[in-house]
Amino acid sequence: MTEENGGIAIMPLPEAFLQELKMRSDISDVVSSYVGLRRSGRNLVGLCPFHNEKTPSFNVYPENGSFYCFGCGVGGDVITFIRRIENLDYMEAVRFLAQRAGLQVPENRVDDGMAKLRARVLEINRETARFYHAMLMSEQGRPGLAYLQDRGLTQATIRHFGLGYSPPSRYALVDYLAQKGYQPSEMIQANVAFKGRSGRAVDRFSGRVMYPIIDLRGNVIAFGGRVLTDAKPKYLNTSDTLVFRKSDALFALNFAKTKEANS
After folding, report:
1. Bridge partners of 76?
2. How does pLDDT run across 44-57, given as a tens digit for each residue?
3. Which residues contact 123 (CB under 8 A, 6 or more apart)?
């Protein structure tokens, strides 16, 4: 059998390696670094990190190294948990846990092309967030800044959350990214652009206040944009990409994690 890595078939990792990885990655320890858990008999329970709930329905079973949420139905082993909580593909989750456990992944058996593309998309997202924030602070961004200030947001809050503005031009971002050395196909993969009728890459967002979505490791993985006119759609979000699934990420999740860790 083979594992699927973002659509690329790769050779399976040795079963002995996977068993040792799971043995060294105690699911209770791994999950507890993300979720507040309490003992319930032989198991552990807490609030599910994958959906909003007030009554704990997220269960960890140390004896067989698995977890399951009775609220949303998500479950699996420690690799599955890391895949979902960190928004990683299978091999990236394995590497994540291997680094944590001090193990060497047999990389020679893996096609890492998808991992490189994913890293490229994250770079584009980071540059895009910088561009949007710079636009908000510029003369072009005055409409967006006025909108945010009218809603009571201070400069400190705007900087803290990295808010930005996408200018009305449909080529401002793609031209900026091209100057940074990124290819139109990569911008489209990141979903910050789309292919226009002429075949040229076009900015996905324009004339909107921009909200970057950042994962627990500080990576910009997506964007949400709110238009300043009566145009439709009022809200526009990044579609699913190599680094983002709408069902798994929330705005300011990175700050929520920091707050939880310090509480």
Report:
1. 67
2. 999 999 999 999 99
3. 182
